[in-house]
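Hello, quick one for you while I still have it in my head. A protein chain has come my way and I'm curious about its shape. Can you walk me through what the tokens say about the fold? No rush at all, and the record is pasted right below.
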Amino acid sequence: MFGVLLASYVINAMDRQLFPLMAPEVRREYGFSLAGIGLLSTVFTLGMAVAGAPTGFLLARFSRKAVLQTGIALFSAGTGLTVVSRGFPDMLMYRAVTGIGEAMQLTVLLAIAANYFAGYRAAALGAVNFAFAIGAIVSPVLGGALLAASGSWQVPMVAFGVLGFVVMAVITVSVDPSATERDSAAAARADDGGAATLGNRNTILLTVMSLLGGLVMYGYLGMYPTFLREGLSYSPTAAGSVMGLYGLGALTSIGGGWIGDRGSPRVVLSATFVVAAVLGYLLFNGSGAYYWQAMLSFAWGVVVSGVIYVNLAGSHVKAVRRNLAGRASGVFVTSLYLSAAVAGYLMGWIANRAGWADAGTIQISLSSLCAAGLALALRPEPMSAAMR
């Protein structure tokens, strides 16, 4: 049943990754600016930021399954409705609605994983991101193929939206409350440390790091496909395959979580943010050759999605006691996606004025280095230990 829930997150990832690939076609049809299309590519994260923390409170009043199903309905409807947009304002609204639904689903999945698999929290959260990686692999390839076959960007958007309602029906008939509403016996027996309030040193540091992480991750996710298409003149198929390799790298998420369960978050996060700074620089300042970009995109998926994202989420949960896991997940979702909401716009704005190379250096590399410095200030000792 947990596998079925993870499969629903594959659909989430497919919807999330689709629009940036369609962005050049949308831009030509509507005449949007580069900064505008960047905002449309990442504004769903504003919806995620708005909905993340409130979802943590909803989980205290409604069943996890009900909140999750509502989230899937919202992001699937928003994806499909994008094709009927008349201009920038209503398309912006539909894209933001997808983010509200995605935040609800993600927050629920993080809470289920962290509480049910209490002894392996980061690895369990890695399984959620593993599902995202599957969607990130499938979406560009399938979306690019549908675009090439139909010649219309609307066809992939509608097809992916309908798929979300199909998975809702599957969850309704196949997932029992035992998989969503109950915590594991190990988690129920003991509250294994962590702060008694969200206002603690580690959570505050992690929140700022997540804000920086949103600029890093969604500067790449929101505008890298456009960089490939417009900056390097890649075809939709070639750009989709490069982005698919990012998803392939993110398949290491369970291993990245395993490292986080056994290593110090101070060491793991500071080291990987430094590596992200180097990779970000090379992506936008190095060779435009296909194999170079493909290799770097894969490495980015391993480091940023497979290790940084998973351990930021895991550290938020570990920083507090078990009864605050849902709210801690909401704080993570809100902080990461709040900055991600403007990441595409900011990246496009810098690229318009200074070029893609400086945009990658300023937004991705410098933000990563700042986050690495903050990670050194974490105090792992008060954080809850995995019950090995």
User: Anything to note?
Assistant: The chain has one domain: 2-183+192-375.
